[in-house]
Amino acid sequence: MVTEQEIVDAEAAVEAAEAKLDRADEYQDTAGSEQAVNEFRAARVDAHAARDQLRRLKSMWAREQQGQARREAAEAAFTKKRDKVVDRLTAGRDEAARAVASLDQAAAEALRAVAVYTELVQSAARDLRAAGLRHDDGGVEGGSTDGSVHVGGEVWRPASGPDMLGVLVSAAVAAHDQRHPLATRWRYSGGLVAQAGAEALRKAAGR
Q: What is the Cα–Cα distance from 185 to 173, expressed in whole angstroms?
C-alpha cells in the first residue's frame, strides 16, 4: 500500500532533483567544462528518475484508492446477505461434522468387530488343530496354519481391520475422485490371507 507520506517524500525528491538540475544547467553554461556537462547529464537522469517515481506512486495510489472504494461498496452490499451466508455455512459444517463423527464411530466399531471376529477364527483354528483336525493334512474340515478354518462347507479366514477400512476408503474415494492418492488400490499388509479375509467380509456385507 502506498502511503500519503511516500507521495510527499517523492514530491520533495522531485523538487530537490529539479533544483539540482537547474544548478547543474547554470554551472554548465558558465563553466563549459566536460565535468560540468557530465554533472548536468547526471542531474537530468536523477530528475527524470524522481519524476518517474512520483508518477508511479501517484498511479498506484489512485488504483489503491479505487480498489478501496470498491471494497467498501462490496462490504456494504454484502452486509444484507451476511446472515444467510453464515447460516448456510454453519448448516453445511454441522452436517459434515456429524458425518465425520458418525464415520469415526463406525470405523472404531468396525476395527473392534473385525478384531473380535479374527480372534474367533484363529482360536477355532488352534482348537481344531489341537484336536487333531488339521486341514493342511488333507482333511476336509479343520484348522490351517494360516489361522483360517475349514468347517461347515465354508472357509473362515482371519481379517485385518485396518486393511478392511483401507479397502473401503479407497473404493469410496475412487468413486468420487480417481486421481486422489487414496483412490489407488489398497495394498494389504497381511498378504494373501488378509486379502482373502477382507474380501470374504466385503462379500458377506454385500459390498
A: 11
CA angle (39, 40, 43) in 5-degree steps: 85
d(CA 38, CA 50): 18
Mean predicted confidence (pLDDT) in 28-40: 84
> pLDDT tier at 14 (50, 70, 90 boundaries)?
very high
End-to-end CA distance of the chain: 58
Among candidates 110, 126, 206, 93, which has minimal Cα distance to 159?
110
In the numeric block, the cell 494389504 is attached to 188
CA distance 8 to 14: 10
Question: What are residue 155's DSSP bridge partners?
Answer: 150
Q: What is the value of pTM for the model shown?
A: 0.60
- With 0-12 / 13-18 / 19 or more C-beta atoms within 10 angstroms meaning exposed / middle / buried, residue 124 is middle
